[in-house]
């Protein structure tokens, strides 16, 4: 097992490099970029540049302060050059022997475009030391920005996964034991209907019925906590938090719940029909002993071993629409805004971090298979 894990860990490096290279190459062909985004903002509002981080010589903000409506007069080339340098697309190159501070104002210095290949290698070099840089438009590091949005993803991912397992596994087992009964029939109808309903549509339904729409106002409409939550006693903080997450977690849960229930049922059905189960029953073992002493371990192999992957998928695959409907500012909305604004440090930083976590979780999932069933030997199979 040790040699297999080592091989998988060594494959993480080229796999992650390939993922980053493909996505970086794709962005080179996408029209528009961070510079174009700034220009578009300036054409709409003269103070949009205040959202940018400062640059050399007092920053772009100071250079444009009091200038009025910039878009109406056109932007000076020096301003565009500083934008390209600020975003890392160009650099200042000075003549040999130059001893002053590199600046575009110096006649010995000029702007030089940085090739895409060099920019990619610089980016990957920084990422290897977990230096993800700062957001272009928020003046905050990518790590701090992700940590700021993480509570929403923790809420949706952790609670959805745990509740799905707590409900789906017992329900799937009972459906398998009573396969073909009326209980199995009507619960299957509910599960299929739940799977067919889009999550965003179910979320709107929950809001209309339970969040002050046309019927009841039992739950809050938006956010994870109430105003003034920091001043609440600890027990009121817990109840307020749980009160807020009921609707978004329920909307996020519905599809995962249906899939996991049917997976559990089918896995148990496959095991119940095997010869060792009939042998155990012939020996006089009770049905509970047969079911939970023999069948459960084999049937739950695929379900338990898939927990890390399922959790990661729900955790980092935060639903943008669910977040938007319930006004939750999480990783889903962060990724959407970064893509729209061409905020490359956020896009590539989160892609690298979550890609690395995903590859590591894949290895953990394989280890879970071995822990659940020691008969599985990936090293011998390889």
UniProtKB/TrEMBL annotation:
The keyword Membrane applies. PANTHER family: INNER MEMBRANE ABC TRANSPORTER (PTHR30465), INNER MEMBRANE ABC TRANSPORTER PERMEASE PROTEIN YEJB (PTHR30465:SF66). This is ABC transporter permease subunit. One of its GO terms (cellular component) is plasma membrane. Its main location: membrane. Belongs to the binding-protein-dependent transport system permease family. Residues 150-369 form the ABC transmembrane type-1 domain. GO terms for biological process: microcin transport; transmembrane transport. InterPro entries: MetI-like (IPR000515), MetI-like_sf (IPR035906).
């Amino acid at each position: 097992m040790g040699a297999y894990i080592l091989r998988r860990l060594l494959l993480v490096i080229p796999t992650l490099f390939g993922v980053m290279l493909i996505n970086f190459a794709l962005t080179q062909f996408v029209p528009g970029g961070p510079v174009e985004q700034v220009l578009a903002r300036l054409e709409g509002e003269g103070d949009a540049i205040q959202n940018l981080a400062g640059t050399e010589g007092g920053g772009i903000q100071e250079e444009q302060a009091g200038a009025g409506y910039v878009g109406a007069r056109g932007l000076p080339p020096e301003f565009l050059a500083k934008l390209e340098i600020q975003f890392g697309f160009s650099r200042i190159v000075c003549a040999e022997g130059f001893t002053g501070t590199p600046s575009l104002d110096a006649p010995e210095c000029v702007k030089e475009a940085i090739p895409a290949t060099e920019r990619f290698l610089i980016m990957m070099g920084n990422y290897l030391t977990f230096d993800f840089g700062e957001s272009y438009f928020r003046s905050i590091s990518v790590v701090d920005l992700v940590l700021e949005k993480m509570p929403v993803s923790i809420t949706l991912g952790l609670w959805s996964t745990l509740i799905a397992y707590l409900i789906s596994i017992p329900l799937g087992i009972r459906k398998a034991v009573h396969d073909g009964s009326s209980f199995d029939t009507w619960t299957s109808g509910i599960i299929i209907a739940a799977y067919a309903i889009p999550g965003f549509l179910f979320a709107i339904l929950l809001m209309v019925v339970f969040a002050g729409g046309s019927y009841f106002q039992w739950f809050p409409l938006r956010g994870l906590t109430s105003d003034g939550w920091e001043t609440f006693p600890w027990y009121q903080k817990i109840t307020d938090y749980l009160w807020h997450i009921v609707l978004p977690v329920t909307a996020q849960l519905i599809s995962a719940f249906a899939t996991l229930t049917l997976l559990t049922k089918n896995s148990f059905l496959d095991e119940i029909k095997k010869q060792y189960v009939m042998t155990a029953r012939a020996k006089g073992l009770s049905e509970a002993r047969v079911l939970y002493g023999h069948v459960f371990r084999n049937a739950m192999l695929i379900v338990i071993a898939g927990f890390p992957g399922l959790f990661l998928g729900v955790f980092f695959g935060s639903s943008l629409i669910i977040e938007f409907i319930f006004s939750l500012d999480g990783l889903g909305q962060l990724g959407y805004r970064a893509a729209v604004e061409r905020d490359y440090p956020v896009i590539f930083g989160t892609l690298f971090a979550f890609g690395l976590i995903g590859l590591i979780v894949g290895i953990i999932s394989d280890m879970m298979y071995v822990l659940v069933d020691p008969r599985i030997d990936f090293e011998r199979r390889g």
